[in-house]
Design goal:
It catalyses: ATP + protein L-histidine = ADP + protein N-phospho-L-histidine. With 638 residues, this protein is of the alpha+beta class. Helices cover 64% and strands 14% of the residues. The strands form three sheets. It has a five-stranded antiparallel beta sheet with strand order 2-1-5-4-3, with helices on both faces. Strands 7-6-10-9-8 form a five-stranded antiparallel beta sheet. It has a two-stranded antiparallel sheet with strand order 11-12.
């Protein structure tokens, strides 16, 4: 559960956090690039790729959310229209201020840059550079005067003296170098303190070229590693032989002069560079502002999609929950969050659905219990040997068990929903049944019991019928129940039993005198056979033999007659004794003696191997004899 919640939070906030970080990085790079031209070229490609990637992500996110909300609106999903309206409101409130600020920012950028790049500023900077150059030129001319003084001292001196004089002058003046050249560009004397670094700075060809038409030279030279210098040169006569040559020196300016002149030149160059790229700079600022505006608008648009969905999520949940409850799904639960004001509504909704679900469960349990009772009743009725027919208050057949079809020899179960009297009128065999039931049908408020004699196709049936009311709540009559039992076999068994008893007793009474007659005849034959002879003996034997033979024949006839009283062959099969007792006692619950029959049966009794008809006859005789033995005024006995 915690893992699912963590995944949900990450899925919700990770895209926003990721794109937000990318926007911060992009704006930081853009800020650095706009404020420091040195980094502008370095970060240009990175900014283009990064902003393009952000635009692609925002475009995909906006497109996905737009397609989703249009699909939801098209499918009429819950809360889609409210979400769309809220999103439009967010966009209007976001885009209007951004557009207004953008318009004023664009105009401000153009006018402000134009003012900063005004021509008067450029002219003033040029004047400052020119003033700096004039100041340095004046200093350089002073250096030239110092060099003239040095040149006047070189005539009539040998090289060693000249070298000493030049070293002494260089040390006093602070010059970097002092060089004496011959007319053929060869070094005569070179006095410096850093020969390796300054030789490359001296351009002899240029120097002689500049001195070709003049006697003196004064100019300002720059070195990338050393700063600004003053280069001065004059034509001199030197040596013992008064040879002609060129004397040149490289003198530095003061640190303050160098810093000021370089700063003025740098500012003037930067300003001119800006002036040359005025349109490009203005366009760059506008592009940067446009990028920021586009990113802000797209992010605001995406945020409007997201936060409109987040804000309307509780409403959508409530609508979906309401539709689910309306469709019968009472297990629907709304997510409850304590971070908004919808939590009370969500809790109330969940409480309502829980109560409705409990009520539905109770109703379902009651329905299942009722269904179980109906199923139990169907099983009981289906296994009853008695026919059962239930009628409503309008005598319409509602329920018929299988035994009713068997007893009445008709498809009574197919007649459910029809009028009972019409069904009996249409079937010829049931007309006597209807005639016997008519008194009860005309006055069904009282219980009724009667025997009905049905005869069809030469077969006679005697039915024991009972009728009773089915009470409804508030003491209203819901319907009636009719129970009938085929007692033809029972009556026939009683008839057979009576005749069997008569035959047994008659056979017993007839056989009693036959035995002594037979014994007497046999005794006479034995006794008289010794006395008489001849024809008399023959006659005696014939007569006594006839008597004995006829007595045997008569005994066989008596035995055959007594066999009528013997019980038929047993028909044993598995029988539920409890069910058999219940069926038999149901026939005698309504009796003239008003005796209540109570049963105490063992529900765990297994099926027994019995002759159902003999046991049924036994129970019928037992109950009938017991009822007949009770006095008529002994009402209320059990």
């Amino acid at each position: 559960m915690a893992a699912d919640s963590l995944k949900k939070v990450l899925f919700r906030w990770l895209p926003i956090t990721f794109i937000g970080i990318l926007l911060i990085i992009s704006l930081s790079f853009l800020h650095v690039a706009m404020n420091d031209p040195e980094y502008s070229d370095r970060y240009t490609n990175a900014l283009i790729y990064l902003n393009g990637f952000i635009l692609l992500l925002l475009g995909i996110a906006i497109l996905v959310n737009l397609v989703r909300i249009i699909y939801q609106w098209h499918m009429r999903q819950a809360g889609s229209r409210f979400t769309l309206r809220l999103m439009v409101g967010f966009l209007v409130l976001t885009l209007l201020p951004v557009i207004v600020v953008s318009i004023f920012s664009m105009n401000f950028i153009g006018k402000n840059i134009s003012k900063q790049l005004d021509g008067q500023i450029e002219s003033a900077l040029d004047d400052a550079v020119e003033l700096s150059r004039l100041s340095l030129s004046a200093r350089s001319r002073g250096h030239l005067q110092q060099l003239f003084l040095l040149g006047d001292r070189l005539a009539g001196k040998n090289k060693l003296e000249i070298a000493a004089i030049m070293d002494s002058w260089r040390a006093r003046s602070g010059a970097y170098e002092a060089i004496l050249l011959s007319n053929d560009f060869s070094y005569v004397i070179n006095s410096n303190d850093s020969l390796g670094s300054l030789v490359s700075m001296f351009a002899g060809n240029d120097l002689f070229k500049d001195l070709s038409g003049n006697r003196t030279l004064s100019r300002i030279e720059t070195s990338a590693g050393e700063g600004i210098f003053s280069r001065v040169a004059i034509r001199v006569v030197y040596g013992i032989d008064n040879e002609s040559g060129v004397l040149t020196a490289l003198l530095p300016f003061s640190a303050r002069e160098q810093v000021l002149s370089q700063r003025v030149a740098t500012v003037r160059d930067d300003y001119k560079e800006i002036g040359f790229g005025r349109g490009v700079l203005r366009q760059a600022f506008r592009v940067a502002l446009a990028v920021i505006i586009v990113l802000s608008v797209l992010f605001a648009l995406w945020a409007a999609f997201i936060f409109s969905r987040r804000l309307t999520q509780p409403v959508r949940d409530l609508v979906e929950g309401t539709l689910a409850v309306a469709s019968g799904d009472l297990e629907k639960k709304l997510p409850v969050s304590d971070r908004d004001d919808f939590s009370l509504l969500a809790r109330s909704f969940n409480t309502m659905t829980k109560r409705l679900s409990n009520v539905q469960d109770e109703r379902e349990q009651a329905r299942m219990q009722l269904q179980q009772e109906h199923d139990y009743l169907d099983v009981v009725l289906g296994h009853l040997s008695s026919g059962v027919v239930t009628l409503d208050e309008n005598m319409i057949i509602r329920r018929v068990n299988a035994s009713a079809d068997r007893i009445l020899n008709g498809p009574m179960q197919e007649q459910a929903g029809k009028d009972f009297e019409e069904v009996c009128e249409q079937v010829a065999v049931l007309k006597p049944f209807l005639q016997a039931l008519r008194p009860w049908l005309e006055n069904p408020d009282q219980d009724w019991q009667s025997e009905v004699d049905l005869s069809a196709a030469g077969h006679r049936k005697i039915l024991m019928c009972r009728g009773a009311n089915l009470p409804e709540n508030d003491m209203k009559q819901q319907g009636y129940v009719l129970v009938f039992e085929d007692v033809s076999d029972v009556l026939q068994a009683e008839h057979d039993a009576a005749w069997g008893e008569v035959a047994r007793r008659l056979a017993h009474e007839i056989k009693n005198p036959l035995t002594p007659i037979q014994l007497s005849a046999e005794r006479l034959s034995r006794k008289l056979g010794k006395v008489v002879d001849g024809e008399s003996e023959t006659f005696l034997n014939r007569m006594t033999g006839t008597i004995i033979q006829q007595v045997d024949t008569l005994k066989q006839m008596v035995n055959a007659f007594s066999d009528y009283a013997k019980a038929p062959a047993l028909m044993v099969r598995p029988v539920s004794l409890n069910q058999l007792i219940t069926e038999v006692t149901a026939l005698y619950q309504e009796n003239e003696q008003q005796v209540e029959l109570l049963l105490a049966l063992d529900n765990d009794l297994p099926l027994l191997q019995l002759d159902q008809h003999r046991v049924r006859q036994l129970l019928v005789n037992l109950i009938k004899n017991a009822l007949e033995a009770i006095e008529t005024d002994a009402t209320g006995m059990n």
